[in-house]
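ok so heres the complex, two chains, lmk if somethin looks off
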Amino acid sequence: MLLLTLRRKRHMVDKPSDLVQGTLDMLILKTLALEPMHGYGIAVRLEQMSHGVFRVNAGSLFVAFQRLQRAGLIKGEWKPTENSRRAKYYSLTEQGRRRLNSETREWGRQVAAIARILEAS
Amino acid sequence: MSLLRNATSGLRSLLRKTQVDRELNEELNGFLEMAAEEKIKHGVSREDARRAVRLEQGNFEVTREVVRSATWESLVETCWQDLRFAIRMLRKSPGFTAVAVLTLALGIGANTAVFSLVNGVLLRPLPYLNPDRLTMVWEKSSDGSAENVGYATYLDWKSQNKSFEQLAIYSSWQPVLQVGEPEPLNGLRVTSNYFRTLGVHPEIGRDFLPEEDSPNTNKVVMLSHRLWQRKFSSDPNIAGKTIDLNATQYIVAGVLPASYQSLMSQDPRGGTVEIWRVLGYDISQPWACRTCHHLVAIGRLRDGVSITQATAEMDIVSAALTKAYPKEYDDVGVIVTPIRDQLLGPASGRLYILLGAVCLVLLVGCANLANLLLARAASRQREVAMRTALGATGGRVIRQLLVENCLLGLLGAAAGLFPACWMPKVLAIIGAGDLPRLDQIRLDWRVLLFTAGVALLTGVATGLAPAYRLSKTELRDCLQQGARGGNLASSRLRGLLIVSEVALSLTLLISAGLLLRSLSRLLVVSPGFDPANVLSMQTSVLGQRFNDNEVVRQYFAEAVERLRELPGVQSAAAASQIPLAGNMDRYGFHVEGKIHANPEEDPSAERYCITPGFLETMRIPLLRGRDVSPADAATTQQVLLISETTARRMWPGEDPIGKRVKLGALDKPWWTVVGVTGDVRHVGLDATPDMQMYVPHRQWPYPDGLMVFVIRAAGPPTAISTAAQQAIHSIDPAQPISRIVPLGDYVGLSVQGRRFALILIGAFASIALVLSIVGIYGVTAYTVSQRTREIGIRAALGAQRAELFGLLLRQGMLLVLCGVVAGVLASVAFTRFLASLLFDVQPTDPLTFACVVLLLVAAAAGACFFPARRAMRVDPLVALRHE
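and the predicted structre for the whole thing:
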């Protein structure tokens, strides 16, 4: 159901591998922490920030928007874009900001722990 | 919080579907446009850019579906689609729908009806506070059975036990209410803590006070809500007023709430209890003795005390009492039972049997429907194959089919609610015997929930096999060849369904057969008297003048005389109780020379206090000696008649005439046996007669004031009813007369419980039989239609018609016979649960089994015969062109 895939750069390995469950939500929250953005903007920003490692397709992205919106972490608002078309801009809610902070901390803890385990051998 | 937001936003997208869809479209479109523009900026042509985006992001429609189906409301939406599709499908085949709904309506309706009965009688909470803490408390008699308690014992129990928060006692009381027309009421005398024990508070007025519970201050009564409405036009100021009962003034303490139903008197012949009076006993009174077992005790257990603990403690109390008064108890021990068992226990067995039986009906219905669905599945394979080809997954197909079946189930349930609505009326017509709480039977949320549950379960259960079968449809085969259903696996499944249907119906039919045989056996049992043309009516003397015993004796002698003089009356008499009318009056029977060291261990006999002419009127045979006569007066030797069983038990091999006995207490004069009568069935036609004795009303030291007149008429007994009442009122118009009932009705009432079970189980068995016959017919007919081609070929190749006919008949009957074998085995295993309802018939009565099997096989043969005959008439040419 979740079409979350993580693709490494084409010239490296062509096989997609699953993104860790729930990471996409955190990444979207992080992207929106700077400024409100529309869907395409978020996709582009994710790709840029990860230096092209994450290429999320529209399906997964919009499912995530729906989920985050219903959880009250982000909210959407229709606004004109710079190219004078209309787009839905998503922004973090106060609750979303808190969630991002806690998830970032938790993520750091987990990564450190995993790293320790992997380095132990 | 977020759950709420999820729900509201889901609802929004359900209700404002177009707007939400438009927004999603616009957003997605914008996304793709922007992606394309990005590419165009890098110098790619518009066309190429769009293609590239599509390649990267996948199909626009698919993406939209993915986003949409990620929410819960999309599930609701597809279910709604399924439902609408199901309605369309059912409307397209009205014949199938009608048959299926009717089948389910029969099965579910019968279940709902019986469940509403079970619910009303057993499941609804008892109208007391924490009813699971309430118990009955009995003395244990020497044969281990429960026995009523004497007042002195009760006082000791009450003061010495630590297990019970409250301990109360009651006894029955039949006062005559003198408000308007004098009316005898069914009442109880209770200790002042009775209602506190039950946890019931008066709606108006106050509870009984402890100081009112003594001999001189006990003229206080509590009214039932109905009595208050009926006789006192709901007077809100009734509390504290005085009313006349039995020519005495009583003060009304209060009125109980309407929700309170008295369950203490469940005699169908007695009616509900409507009035309560303070018991007001005193230890000095002669009837307060330890051996005066006429009081029933109830107790409320303290928190945390179990019934076992309470019994153990009471046993110790009882042991101490037995030690202190060795001649007043016949055994050590106390029996404590939950009040629920006492009130509902006897009914529960019978009701659960009914519930079991009705479940079998539903199973037969389900099997039938499953068969129907299987046949339909064969013709729907193409449709399903098409949907699968268009991308529906197996789960989706199954869901669609199950929604269809659940819809059928719910339609059936809706139709099946009607019988449940009629249940109270049906019960009133056929008579439910002594089932308690029949007024509680109605469609409440429990019944509706049960019905809905059964409907959905039925829908899923019947649909699962066919749906699974369909979802596994081999796509290519179907689309290429066109539907040619009827593969081996599904025909085997159909066979299995028929076998189980036959087995289930047979079990039900055998049960009904056994009950029928029991009832017919019971109805030929002689009650020991001749009830035909005898009218009974009860009276109870009313007025201060009856405090004189001689006045009572004179009054009844005169009343009987006046009744005898009526035209059309052959004979008349009066008695303190009559057989089969639900009375219970026993006296200790102490035979001279055979009195136990502890007289409490002596047996007791049913006591009929009679006026001369009772035996003649009832046509109870006098076997030896003489009848009582008007000459047996207060001044002459005290005489009594005994029944055959009494004679046999007390004087085996001896002539009882002239023997002497003491009745009740030992300090009273002797009674001499002057005659032996035939036994009568006192408790019920199905109960072995116990010891009985007849004492002359004119000789009994305290002549009974509550008497039943029996009047033998030349014709129908009801014809003399008015004249008989006038005759009594010609002596004293104030005397109340009640329960004017032909004796034949009492005989009918005593078998009503069995008749009720027979009618219901008989009805269920008939439904099951019809359903399975329809099922067998349907399957045979279906097989014939599926094999028309084969039959045609066989006929064309020269097969004899008789052979073809035999072939089809044999196949059908083989299934039936398998079912019969399974059914007989199941019946042997299950009919023993019916044992309590059977009379003089073994649960495995071979004759019943044989008759029922014959009936079923004959009916099934008929069901196979017609389709097979049709097959025989098939024209080979037509058959070959069939497809």
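quick notes: Residues 94-120 of chain A form the longest helix (27 residues). thats all i got rn
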